[in-house]
Amino acid sequence: MVPDTCLGDIAAAYDVLLCDVFLTLHDADGAFPDAVEALRRFRAGGRTVVLVSNSALPGPALVATLGRVGIGPDAYDCVVTSADLARELLARSAVRAILHLGPVGDRALLAGLAVELTEAVEAADVILCTGWPTGPAGGEPPALSQVLEAAAARGLELICTNPDRSVEVVGRVLRFAGLVAERYAALGGRVLATGKPDPSIYRVALAAAADRSIGRPAAEALVVGDGLALDVAGAFASGLDALWITETGSAAPAMPPTARLYRATALRW
Asked: Which residue has the higher pLDDT, 223 or 3?
């Protein structure tokens, strides 16, 4: 592992950057200026930046959100989200009735699809989990366990758009869809992930880069992100190198013999 790396030191080896968004480019308080500038400078060399996010928002909606926190379109070429993959999956399937688990606002993912929402497990064709379903006082909904048990008994598939489990941000622990998916899998339920670290989202991101007339081999793409279990693991599973944004003291992960791992405390040029 190469420690304390600036993107500018290694940019010449890569033509495509597959970059994480939350906690890599911004947090709850706004954009990280050095990180945004690093993406701009990477693109200035004729290279391509694809933002790869486990957001429950489809790409166009995430673009609008990024603009509001100060990350403009000059910092990237396109956006691929796990919601985009979930939408494509649902559009190609025979699914019509969806039981949604997650924040109500995440249902924007379903806009324009020929599907309907149901609260009844027995009427659902699939479960779509986009986030932690919050109950009274921020706790777990009283019926969550019963819903998961009934769905597993019926053999329903659970589509998880964010395999992340939890993260602490400014003293708050944020819980994600991965916690629900983990519980469902423990019940014997079938889980399909459309987000990182599953290689499918990186395949779509590389195809998006190729659509911009880059068409570089995967070996010339670099994954950037703060998540060891998501970004770094996803990079290695996809045969890609990674730049891990992490504290200096973080332990190095196990890695394939052909992979290259860089480390930095922040994304900067």
From this structure: 223
Backbone angle region of 4, left / alpha / beta, with phi > 0 → left and psi within -120 to 50 → alpha: left
- Chain-centroid distance of CA 211 in Å reads 21
Q: How many domains does one find in the chain?
A: 2
**Rounded Cα–Cα distance for residues 213 and 256 (Å):** 30
Classify residue 159 as left (phi > 0), alpha (psi -120 to 50) or beta: beta
Q: Are 147 and 130 in contact, with CB atoms under 8 Å apart?
A: no
Same domain, 22 and 48: yes
Name the band, by pLDDT with cuts 50, 70 and 90, for residue 258: confident
- Cα–Cα distance, 94 to 12 (Å, whole number): 45
Question: Which domain CATH number covers 206?
Answer: 3.40.50.1000
- Which ranges in the chain belong to alpha helices (H)? 7-10, 33-44, 59-68, 82-92, 144-154, 177-186, 199-211, 233-237
Q: Domain range spanning residue 25? A: 7-83+197-264
Task: Tell me how far apart the alpha carbons of residues 178 and 164 are, in angstroms, rounded to a whole number.
Answer: 5
Closest residue by Cα to residue 15 from 196, 226, 240, 238: 240
Distance CA 44, CA 27 (A): 25
Check residue 158 and give its pLDDT: 98
Q: Average pLDDT, stretch 205-230?
A: 81
| 56 belongs to a structural domain | yes
Q: Which of 144, 162, 193 is the last residue of a domain?
A: 193
Confidence at residue 138, expressed as pLDDT on a 0 to 100 scale: 58
Output 246-251 pairs: Cβ under 8 A, ≥24 positions apart: 248/3, 248/4
In a domain, 232, yes or no: yes
Closest CA to 191 of 258, 105, 266, 129: 129
Crossing angle (nearest 10°) for helices 199-211 and 82-92: 90
